[in-house]
Design a protein that fits this description.
8-stranded mixed β-sheet; 32% strand; alpha+beta
Length: 398
């Protein structure tokens, strides 16, 4: 059963929208180190509802995005879960690189659909400190209609995956870095690796300064109201993700195609935990959030969920918690024409917690959030994409 008010619904705002004047929000991306930098500020609205502001040095655009959880975490199921954001950004980035690389190689793609499976694990006890999130290799099926040798198409997709900036987080183990501020006082980390420098100023009330740009944004994300069909991995239902001890696998699938106007349409299925089907739009021209903004929002949302979940399990509530997360990516190998594989620096996250507990609790909360975050685990692992190229299925319907 959902706990607390549905603040996202009560706000009356679209879940996703482009911010009218990023300068008025006073949240700028850091100076790029590798080519592109993304700054993401996330705040908790309720235990499971969160909103983010994401700004890219490459596009100069800021997006407001929102996330919720389903019944498996006693959420309202009003907005997409955190893991679906990374899956959406990942498949969007892969489509960018496949199309750009195909053009460079003289491969005429008539039709393209990507089907991507992401898998994660959660094992151990939260209260004993052994609960740990994990990430597994992804599955990527590329349905392609092109008059080219199958081996050339297989090589195209593999090379496109490597050219994606996300490759820098997926293929080389990256330990994320953190600062911790508790009740407005900077304190030392316990186990989490530190950022080499002081904490950034808390984003605080800057969320209220993010005014919606003119336009129709309601179509950027659509809650279908339909549950994902169950499959062999479906095992976690209402309240199941809140158990103190766990041993389970999570499974998401996304389907991506491109409309005639170039906007990508991405459908998310949440097999385990069992959740609702959502439909996203993504675009690199400002009509919808770009791939990297989705990726960074996903990591921030997932990390914030783990703070709330740990506090709820430990029965030591946080009054408020927010983060600012900085990501540094290389330019893309194909769409940015560098001809190189994608690289990235470790993520840097500044955490701000408010509670009635002592500093030791705040340190443990950070350590457990980092340890159980599926997407920080994704960064720490050396993962591969298991690629399969098939004929384009005209009758397919996600």
């Amino acid at each position: 059963m959902a706990v607390g008010a549905n603040l996202l619904k009560e706000s009356g705002k679209p879940l996703f929208f482009r911010v009218k004047d990023p300068a008025a929000v006073a949240l700028s991306p850091p100076e790029p180190r590798l080519g592109t930098s993304i700054r993401t500020a996330v705040r908790s609205l309720t235990v499971m509802q969160k909103e983010a502001l994401v700004i890219s040095s490459r596009t100069g655009q800021m997006w407001r995005l929102a996330s919720d959880e389903g019944p498996y975490l006693d959420g309202h199921d009003y907005a997409p879960c955190p893991l679906s954001f990374l899956s959406t950004g990942m498949v969007s980035s892969y489509m960018n690189e496949i199309e750009a690389l195909a053009a460079q190689r003289g491969i005429a793609i008539k039709s393209l659909r990507l089907i991507q499976d992401n898998y994660y694990t959660m094992k151990g006890s939260a209260l004993r400190g052994t609960m740990t999130g994990g990430a597994k290799d992804i599955g990527l099926e590329a349905q392609i209609d092109a008059e080219v040798d199958p081996a050339a198409l297989q090589a195209l997709v593999y090379d496109a995956v490597t050219a994606s900036p996300l490759n820098g987080l997926m293929r080389s183990a990256k330990e994320s870095l953190f600062t911790l501020t508790h009740n407005d006082r900077p304190i030392a980390n316990a186990k989490a690796l530190p950022v080499g420098g002081s904490a950034l100023p808390d984003a605080g009330d800057r969320f209220a300064l993010a005014e919606m740009a003119e336009g129709e944004w309601s179509g950027l994300i659509q809650r279908t109201g339909q549950l994902t069909p169950q499959n062999e991995n479906t095992a976690t239902f209402a309240g199941g993700s809140l158990t103190e001890t766990q041993d389970r696998m999570l499974h998401l699938r996304v389907f991506a195609t491109k409309r005639a106007d170039g906007v990508k349409e991405i459908t998310q299925y949440l097999y385990n935990p069992h959740g609702t089907i959502f439909r996203f739009q993504s675009d690199e021209e400002g009509r919808a959030p770009d791939a990297e903004s989705y990726i960074c929002a996903g990591v921030g949302f997932c990390f914030m969920t783990q703070f709330g979940r740990y506090a709820k399990i430990a029965k030591k509530p946080l009054h408020d918690y927010r983060i600012i997360q900085d990501a540094h990516f290389s330019l893309a190998g194909a769409s940015d024409k560098t001809g190189k594989e994608g690289t990235a620096d470790p993520l840097e996250t500044h955490c701000y917690l408010w509670s009635d507990q002592d500093d030791a609790f705040a340190q443990t909360a950070l350590d457990m959030a980092e340890q159980t975050c599926f997407l920080h685990a994704f960064c720490k692992a050396d993962l591969k994409a298991k690629v399969r190229v098939t004929a384009f299925d005209e009758s397919f319907a996600a």
